[in-house]
Amino acid sequence: MTGSVWRVLNAFDAAGIRYCVLRDGEVVDVQIAPGETDLLIASEDFRKAAVMLAEGGFRRVVRWGYAPHHFFVGYDQEARGTVKLDVVTDIRYGRPVANLFTELAANCLNRRQKLNRVYVPSPEDELVTLLLHCILDKGRFAPERWSRLKTLRREVRDVAYVEALVRRYWPAGVTWDDVARRLDEDDGEALLAMQPALTRHLRQQSGWRSTAIARSNRALRWLNRLAETLKLPG
């Protein structure tokens, strides 16, 4: 992680802003090259965090229709490159529009742990959120993501908690034992095959919000493209 990001996260700690690095937290101590960092920030702390990011040299990039994502870009002098922050205030899934709601953001923030001087999700929360991200958002397991999932599976300590998460967010009949077995057997295809049923289940849980956010975000993205075409100010 670059120096500019370190400084902002340290400032968040000092200001009492609740955050966690959603992905790649295990390598932040050695990753110093420019790149993108995925951050979860408590919704009630976002306005204050946005001000602190601006003070830390990060410019907000306005892109309509990507809620709950907020994008920030800065230049890191030490790394000599552009640093991007993808900040979310809620954890939702789905593509092309994130319209499948969960309550995983509160879980991640309430159970977060310090690792390499920054806050990261617990192994149990990171495992579940990363699994859903790969299945529902990406539709594939990149090698580094699969390797991370295997590591997290070994680090799970609160089995009852993970069992409860799987019961809530996976369709009826799917258990943590089923998911763990697929990980142990390197059967990523079986996990990806759950995508249609997972989508239906989470859409049903999300209720009217799923349709509403899908429609509004699609409309906003169209306006975003129009504004870019006409070069209107954001």
Summarize the SSE layout with pairings.
Layout: H1 3-15, E1 19-21, E2 36-41, H2 46-55, E3 59-61, E4 69-76, E5 81-88, E6 92-93, E7 100-101, H3 104-110, E8 113-115, E9 118-120, H4 123-138, H5 143-155, H6 159-169, H7 176-184, H8 188-192, H9 195-206, H10 208-230
Parallel strand pairs: 2-5
Antiparallel strand pairs: 1-2, 3-4, 4-5, 6-7, 8-9
Helix pairs in contact: 4-5
Features:
234 residues; Beta Polymerase, domain 2; five-stranded mixed beta sheet; two-stranded antiparallel sheet; 16% strand
Description of the molecule:
- The protein folds into two domains: 1-121, Beta Polymerase, domain 2 (2-Layer Sandwich), CATH 3.30.460; 122-206, no CATH class.
- It contains ten helices and nine strands.
- The chain has helices at residues 3-15, 46-55, 104-110, 123-138, 143-155, 159-169, 176-184, 188-192, 195-206, 208-230; strands at residues 19-21, 36-41, 59-61, 69-76, 81-88, 92-93, 100-101, 113-115, 118-120.
- Strand 3 and strand 4 (69-76) form a beta hairpin.
- Helix 4 packs antiparallel against helix 5.
Query: How large, in whole angstroms, is the Cα Rg?
Result: 18 Å
Please outline the major beta sheet. Answer: 5 strands, mixed
Overall pLDDT score: 88
Distance between the termini: 29 Å
What is the CATH level 1 assignment of the largest domain?
Alpha Beta
The number of helical elements comes to: 10
Strand content: 15-25%
SSE order: HEEHEEEEEHEEHHHHHHH
Low-confidence stretches: none
Amount of helix? 40-55%
Structural class: alpha+beta
Shape: globular
